[in-house]
Every structure is written in structure tokens, then in C-alpha cells.
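Reopening this ticket.

The earlier resolution said the output was attached, but the attachment link was broken on my side. Pasting everything inline this time so it's all in one place.
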Amino acid sequence: MGFLDKLFGTQTKEEETMTNEKVNIGIILGSTRQGRVSPQVGEWVKGIADKRSDANYEIVDIADYNLPFLGTTDGSEPGIGAWNEKLANLDGFVFIVQEYNHSITGALKNAMDFAREAWNNKAAGIVSYGSTGGARAAEHLRGICGELKIADVRTHPTLSLFTDFVNGSEFKPQELHLNNVNAMLGEVEQWSKALKTVR
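Inline output:
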């Protein structure tokens, strides 16, 4: 395809088929600690996502892979291969991010470091929470995404520990977040389809 074709949106049949296919998007739970609330947030996002028609969504829990701390083993643990295989089969991601000391969790950073090519040329959205909506963690995550060639979308739902959780543990989101989550998912779906043509 030439430059003018790309500019004016002309697609080859192969590219048209790729952009019309449903993309597979993983909702990645960014915490592994006992008592975490990320599964509640992840299931809420999935419930919204499942009402949409342009993508297949699934929860991807880092805790299921029992990843060791990077650099402390010979790398032969089966969870490492399974983690990379799972990521390779996804076209995009929604990160459920909680803020710890102004950044993302060590578990999420470790999991991101355990893959490279499996992240490349894919799209991601971020749903964050914390005392300031997890905004500082999300900004750190954007820098990591850039290094891994993950295109993160602009719309970013932020959830407050004070107004969207009861006693910091029971997730009760305000209805006002629904529009933001749907807007973010729409961007992730579009970018995931577009980046499939790059891969």
C-alpha cells in the first residue's frame, strides 16, 4: 500500500479483513497482594466491555502465572512461557492499576519486564485507582508502555478510594465513570485493530 492509499484510507482486502475481525483484549489485573480489590475493578470493566460488539475481552490475572522476581532464577519456570504465550495471543490490553508509593505495583512492573515482543505494536487503556485516582501510577505506566511499544490511549478513567470504594475495600463505582470507560474501550478497540495491520 502506498502513502496516498494510507492517507486517504484505502485498504487492501487483507487489511480490511483484519480491521473487521474482532480483536482480543486482556484486562490485566495489576496487583497480586492478599485482599486486593483489582478483581472487583476488573470484573466491573469486563461487564461494561461485554456489552460491546467489536472485541473479545478476558480477565488476565498476573497472580495465576506465579512469576518469579526477574533475574532471581534461570527463567525455566512454566509460568514465564505461559505468560508470554497469553500476551502473544492478545491484540490489546486494559491495565487495572493501583497506586503504590506514587507508582505501579512491583508485581505489574515485574510482569511487564518478563515479556518484550509480545507487547510490541499493541494498544492499551488504563483504569487506575488510589487516593488521587491512581493518576501518578498511570503516568509511570505510560512511560513503560512507550518503551515496550505499547500505544496507550488518551482516555483514562480514574477511580477514587474516597468516593468509589467503601472502607477502601468494597468497590462501589459512581455512574459517572461509565461514559469514560466506554470511551476508553472504544479507543483501545480502534487502535488494536489498526496496530494489527502493523504486526
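Reporter confirms the inline version is readable. The mean pLDDT is 92. The longest strand covers residues 122-130.
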